[in-house]
Amino acid sequence: MPSVPAFDPRVTPARADVAAKALEGKVASARYVEGELREVVEPQAPLRGAPRPDAPLLTEALKGERVTIYDANGEGWAWGQLAADGYVGWLPENALARPGAAPTHKVAALRTLAFPGPSIKMPPREALPFGARLAIARVEERMAVTAAGDHVPAAHLAPLDADEADFVAVAERFVGTPYLWGGKTAAGLDCSGLVQIALTACGVVCPRDSDMQERAEALGTPLRSAPEFYLPRRGDLVFWKGHVAIARDPQSLIHANAFHMAVAVEPVADAIARIRAAGSEITSVRRTAG
């Protein structure tokens, strides 16, 4: 049986040629560096498994997120670790900059537009996803003005410390969103991305991948009953190997899945039977407080 690695490479900034200074003496590497803090300045930035645009998408970083960069390849890609969930990978350097003013607000709409001035007739500068973080300098009538001078509809923002009350309701807003492996926005997301963004909106620190979520004690109490006797309750996280869904009520689940190629609401019995037919059974259920 292969040994389990002491450090999960998905969240450990270590390669054979370079690693974070904090890991010196813990992992083997040719050199150790302190790293430099950067901020995501694009609406969303792909974090990929290799420094090329066609490499697998591991996850996405949203505008305003911080990332520590440990290496750059000189060809437009930087390798580092996201501050929010610890994920490690390659990001386009043009999506990063030195940190500016600290974020004060977050996007609370599925998507909003940033205009270069106060008029909505001006061509938008960019579209911002749910959860993006902004430093707001002031509010002028119905527009919030960012530290960079962009104008964003104030109704689409919430203070950074304002948590949503129901993560299931947050997930429900994404119904119909296309399925995208590694995605985390209304343009496309995957099963664990949906869970992460919904729980994060409620102030719950949530890991990125479904196997990490299944092991995360902060995400609820594991049910001890056998899966065949499982009675869903709103807010339950239901896990299969490589997949996670959220119970809406005793009859239905919401999940981003490749069968529907979208975030879909599906009867519990149908989902269990369909996934069982594909060769997978429920591995566990976590009962959240939601």
Can you walk me through this structure?
The chain is 11% helix and 35% strand. By secondary structure, the protein is mainly beta. It has a six-stranded antiparallel sheet with strand order 20-25-21-22-23-24. Strands 8-7-6-3-9 form a five-stranded antiparallel sheet, with no helix packed on it. Strands 13-10-17 form a three-stranded antiparallel sheet, with no helix packed on it. The relative contact order is 0.11. The model has no long low-confidence stretch (mean pLDDT 94).
Task: Give the biggest sheet.
Answer: 6 strands, antiparallel
Distance between the termini: 38 Å
Strand order of the largest sheet: 20-25-21-22-23-24
- Proportion of strand residues: 25-35%
Low-confidence stretches are: none
The share of residues in helices is: 10-25%
Evaluate the radius of gyration.
20 Å
What would the keywords be for this entry?
single chain; 290 residues; mainly beta; six-stranded antiparallel sheet; five-stranded antiparallel sheet; 4 helices; 25 strands; 35% strand; globular
